[in-house]
Recover the amino acids of this structure.
């Protein structure tokens, strides 16, 4: 009687185990692929632009000009002041009335500033200053050769110069020296806002000139009067 030969079962179990493991791996990979197909947005796709999609800016030639950008704002110069400027009419004028200062035998013209309202015109400022000169011609410190009672009858400024019309009192009293200094007082006062102004002086509407001299001794001078010509014609301090 023959004895039956039986093989061990262990190798068969090992093969089954390997096949099960491979099946599990395949299942996991298959599930991941399915999940990726369902959620394509979860993966990032990097695409490289083709040559047709890339636009390359042309390089300017040597002689070509590149347009400059437009400047939409300007920077003030450092010397400019960003403050409102006063108009000429609103400027503070500072005319002066010229009185006489006597020191021994020396007589000098002395300017006395007269306060003028801000914004006053030149005509108004000179009108007020000449009236001040005629009304304050004598005090403890200064004197004047302008006769008392002299009045300003009119004052006008035009392109030819400053026209001053005085009352008849201006003609009378005193000798030649007194006449010269009273003339100087009116001339320098009327030109206190413009030292180079032409002054036309009249008495009762009559222009004083070579044909119509000033005073009994006949102080003759040419019109228009200026500071420069007056100093040249008459020797005063």
């Amino acid at each position: 009687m023959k004895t039956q030969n039986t093989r061990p079962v262990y190798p068969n179990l090992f093969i089954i185990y390997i096949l099960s493991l491979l099946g599990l791996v395949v299942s996991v990979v298959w599930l991941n692929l399915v999940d990726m197909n369902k959620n394509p947005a979860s993966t990032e796709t990097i695409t490289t632009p083709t040559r047709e999609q890339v636009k390359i800016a042309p390089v300017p030639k040597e002689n070509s000009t590149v347009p400059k950008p437009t400047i939409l704002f300007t920077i003030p110069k450092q010397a400019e002041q960003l403050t409102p400027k006063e108009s000429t009419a609103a400027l503070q004028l500072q005319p002066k009335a010229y009185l006489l200062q006597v020191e021994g035998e020396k007589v000098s013209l002395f300017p006395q500033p007269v306060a003028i309202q801000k914004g006053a015109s030149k005509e108004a400022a000179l009108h007020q200053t000449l009236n001040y000169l005629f009304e304050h011609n004598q005090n403890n410190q200064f004197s004047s050769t302008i006769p008392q009672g002299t009045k300003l009858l009119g004052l006008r400024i035009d392109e030819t110069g400053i026209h001053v019309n005085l009352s008849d009192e201006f003609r009378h009293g005193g000798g030649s020296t007194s006449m010269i200094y009273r003339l100087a007082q009116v001339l320098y006062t009327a030109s206190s806002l413009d030292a180079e102004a032409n002054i036309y002086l009249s008495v009762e509407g009559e222009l004083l000139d070579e044909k119509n001299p000033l005073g009994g001794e006949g102080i003759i001078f040419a019109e228009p009067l200026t500071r420069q010509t007056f100093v040249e014609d008459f020797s005063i301090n």
Q: What stands out?
A: Strands lie at 96-103, 106-113, 152-158, 161-166, 199-203, 206-207.
